[in-house]
């Protein structure tokens, strides 16, 4: 699975100093990514092993766990979690399609 989160405007404190943020990301309570010293707008991406996720509902969460303070708020533009087919499934599908094409031309 591909994960992406777009942080925008990571915040300034009341004294107009730049803030820095340490953020941890979790899927079903299991940490899969840590970003340290987030201080500018940026797109953060990661790949998650989908085989470790049980069928059913899943919970995606993140937590600011520290960083130098100016302000302790962060704005988000979007969050995305997309399932990507496993290469082995794609190979099997392509093989099956190839057999169908060969069989049709015989």
What's the topology here?
Blueprint: E1 2-8, E2 21-27, E3 30-38, E4 42-47, E5 60-66, E6 75-82, H1 87-104
Antiparallel strand pairs: 1-4, 1-6, 2-3, 2-5
Question: Could you explain how this protein is built, in words?
Answer:
- With 106 residues, the chain is an alpha+beta fold.
- It has one domain.
- Helix content is 17%, strand content 42%.
- It is built from one helix and six strands.
- It has one helix at residues 87-104; strands at residues 2-8, 21-27, 30-38, 42-47, 60-66, 75-82.
- The chain has a three-stranded antiparallel beta sheet with strand order 4-1-6, with no helix packed on it.
- It is elongated and about 70 Å long.
- The model has no long low-confidence stretch (mean pLDDT 78).
Q: Largest sheet, if any?
A: 3 strands, antiparallel
Query: What is the strand tally?
Result: 6
Report the β-strand fraction as a percent range.
Answer: 35-45%
Ends: how far apart?
Answer: 39 Å
Q: Which series of helices and strands comes N to C?
A: EEEEEEH
- Supply the number of structural domains: 1
Structural class: alpha+beta
Poorly predicted runs are: none
Q: Please state the overall shape, judged from the principal axes of the Cα atoms.
A: elongated
Strand order of the largest sheet: 4-1-6
- Helix amount, in percent? 10-25%
Count of individual helical segments: 1
Cα gyration radius (Å): 20 Å
Mean pLDDT: 78
């Amino acid at each position: 699975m591909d994960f992406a989160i777009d942080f925008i405007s990571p915040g300034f404190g009341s004294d107009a100093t730049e803030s820095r943020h340490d953020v941890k990301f979790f899927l079903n309570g299991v940490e899969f990514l840590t970003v340290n010293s987030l201080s500018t707008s940026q797109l953060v991406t990661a790949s998650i092993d989908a085989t470790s996720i049980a069928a059913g509902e899943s919970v995606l969460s993140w937590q600011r766990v520290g960083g130098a303070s100016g302000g302790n708020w962060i704005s988000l533009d979007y969050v995305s979690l997309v399932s990507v087919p496993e290469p082995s499934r794609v190979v099997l599908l392509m093989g099956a399609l190839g057999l169908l094409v060969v069989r049709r031309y015989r």
